[in-house]
Structure formats: structure tokens, C-alpha cells
Design a protein that fits this description.
four-stranded parallel β-sheet; about 45% helix; six-stranded mixed β-sheet
Amino acid sequence: MTNPASSGGAGPVFEAKVGASYLLSMLLEVEARGLPGCHMESVRLQRAEEGFPLDDIVVHGVNREGVTASIEIQVKRTLTFTASDKEFKDVVRQIGAAVSRENLGESQHGFGIAIGRTRQSKEPFYQDVLKWARNLEDAVALRSRLERPGAANDAMRNFVAVFSANLLEAGFANDDDAVWRILRRTQILQFDFDSEASATNELMRERCLRALNGGDARDAQNLWSRLTTLAFDMASVGGSRTRAELVEELQPSFRLAGSRSNVYAMEALFEESERAIAGFDNTVGGVTFERESRMDAIREALDQSRYVEIRGNAGVGKSGLLHGLAASLQAEARFLVFTPNRVIERGWLSLKTTIAYDGDGRDLINELSLSGAGILFVDNLDFYSPTEQETIKDLLVFAARHPTMRVVSTARTEFGQVEPTWIPRDIDTVWTSRDDPIE
């Protein structure tokens, strides 16, 4: 077995790793990044000849209602999303071709741009534009948001302008309605495989360990190398795999763990999270406040620490900020949100029994991270009852022990000062830092 990393160029190797990550998600029977709420049925690579303009990776699945869902993904190690970026121009042309190929209507068919995780300062703004397009009711609302003083910035407006200009240059409609309809189906998916201390590489090895029956770290590394090689080979011939085909191919070389689907258990948690986040109010007097400077501060803090607290007095909009960050992830993956009075009490074992989860706490956090969310949201630390605190404390410990899981919480300014904090102090050393809450 030859690992493509030793023989291929940086671009093809990055593409193979992204493809391998989707194969691994399918092997573990979890949701694919970019297709939240869907069961994966197949992963196909390099399918341009079958009419997929974004041909690097095509994932097919079915949603909770049994309706076909899919995402076409173009993989680019780096993009600047600017007018001078020829690769971005080509990706927009491919998206335009995919949209014109058929009338997408209300189908769950999306477009993804997979890039290396960067610290490009303007990148979060592009993600916010896509979030707005998904959540606003029409093109008029999106244009109004972009033009409203204080709501958007030049980076956001330039991103939409360049996207529109690239569509026009490629010969596709670029009126406001056409641009809005395309942007609301588009996602920027970040993978940090190329970074020096890649959290994604570490996460892949952790996932591979979970896919094996009694394997060790070396076995997990070998499985990841095999999946990367397989993705590399599939791309060279326009290959496709279902889960059954993938299992059959891997079984002679690896002792795979048996199928252990927690679809219904996770669905129960996700549905409760959706109810919790629906109760967050991001408005004052009926006006939505984006609070871009605060959102930037949260993102910057998450680059430096895996635990971030948002502190402030009652009514200043802490939950609204949490909602804003969570909303930006909704198209890519589902996540867990906990609020007081909506928590199964008396610790992890009680939660596990109630939802009939097959696995331990490490498995739960792994499963959450597998679909790409990677963040646990805990609102209003001040107001959990003692029995609810038992459950939250267990989940925080599990998250702290995971290599990539992050936590965003909210609390009043005086939390942990007037009275001792109930957050387990013995896990503080696991987090990079939790000394500087965002206020």
C-alpha cells in the first residue's frame, strides 16, 4: 500500500484527504459535512462526465423524510474569493453550470467549496453572507441587509459583487434573485489538513480508532492511510463507493467494528437543540443586531482556546450571540445546544439511558464532531439546577478530553465570583485557556 502523500502533489493529496474524510463518515454511519440530517448512501469522486460540474466529490444521501439529498464539492487548497482569483472564478462558473443543469426547485441539493483552514481575516465575513442568504426570505432582504449601514461591511459586499460578476462573465444570470438562490445553496467547508498542528488530522485518527474493533493508534493510522489511498485511486478513475462496498473492501485488512447506528438517539438530542435555539432572541425592539465586532471576538477566541465564555449582564444579548454563531453552522452540520430546564438530569448515564445511546461519552462527542460541527453550546451557566449541572459537567469533561471539540457558553458577569463555580475545576488544565471571557 502506497500512501499518496509520498507520491502525489500537494493539491491532489489534499483532495484525497477530503475525499477520505467523507468515506470515513460513511463507514461510521454519521452525517456528512454539508448534508446535515441526511443518511449517506454513496461517495463519488471526479464525476464530471456524469454531469456534475463540481466534480471532485459528490455525496448522495436521503433526508429524514426519505427524499434524495446531495452535495457537489469542489476542492481547492486555497482561495482568496477576490476578483483576481482565477480559481474562484472557475468555481463560480462550475456552480452556475450546476444550477443551469436542472431546475433545483426546493430539492436538497447543495454546492460546497472545500478549502484548507486558513486565518484569512475576511473569511468569516464570507461565511456570514452565506448564512444570511440561507436564512433571509428573498433577494430583496439580502440586498437590504448588505446595504444597511452597520449591518454589513465592504468585504461582504465585495464578495457578493465578485460572485455576481463571475456568474455574468461565465454567461449565467446574475440578477439579485439568481445570486441569492445560488448563495443560499453554497457552503465553504474548511479542512486544516495542511496546517502544522492539524486538528483535523488528529480527529481523523480518532475517528479511525472508533471504526476499528479493538485496534490501537497504529491500526488507526493505517486505516486512515488506506482510506486516503483509496480516495486517491477513486479520483483517478472516477470511482464510487457505497458503505457496503467500502466495508467489503476494507475487511480483509482491518478488524472493523460492527454497525452501531445511533440515528434515533442523536435525532432526539438534535431536535431538542433545535427547540432550544429557536427560543433565542437576536432582536431588540424587532430589529436584528448582527454585532459583527462581538462575533469576530468570539471567532478569534475560538482560534486560541477550546473553551469560550460570553459574559454580560442580563438582557445584553449573550444568547443572541450564541445563536448567531450556531446559525452559521446549520447548513454544514447539526450541533448540540443546552439551555436550563431543557436538560436530562442526573448525569451522563441518565442521559444515555433516556435516549438509548449505544456507546460511551467519548463516542457521543466523537459522533458530534464527525459531522463537522465541533462545538458544544451551553447557554446561561447561572441557571442550571443541581441535577442538570451533573449532566452538563459530564459533557464538559467529555468535550475537554476530545482532541478538537470546543465549547461556547454564556453566563452573567458575576458567574463564579459571588458563589463558587460549578464548572469542574479539574478540567481547566485540559482547555487551552478559559481565563478571558468575552464581555
